[in-house]
Amino acid sequence: MILPGMMVMLTPVITGWLLGPEAVAGLLAGILVSGVQMATSSANSGGAWDNAKKFIEKEALVPKSSSEFKEIKAAAVTGDTVGDPMKDTSGPSLNILVKLSAIISLVFGGFFASESGGVLLKYLA
Prior knowledge:
Layout: H1 2-19, H2 21-57, H3 69-107, H4 109-114, H5 119-124
Helix pairs in contact: 1-2, 1-3, 2-3
């Protein structure tokens, strides 16, 4: 978990240092849009998998006496095992990723502005 955490914290800093504040603004916009979409999708699909298991256990799909029930229930349990972490942890944790990237960008904003366009762009121009 150290490497993913460092990626979240260092990406805005490295982007701002190399490419300047405009690139960090674009990076934050991309993080925001993709983070909201991923969080919403994770929470919704996790809830759907959880509810699918409940639906099957209620015998709404096939009765328990059916020969297919055991196989269907096993697949639903697998889906519930994947769905619970998506709904409870994966989706909400993306909110933290977006906030952390934004706060780090704000903290280092003065540094990015003092580089006036980024180190890489100075050498390319």
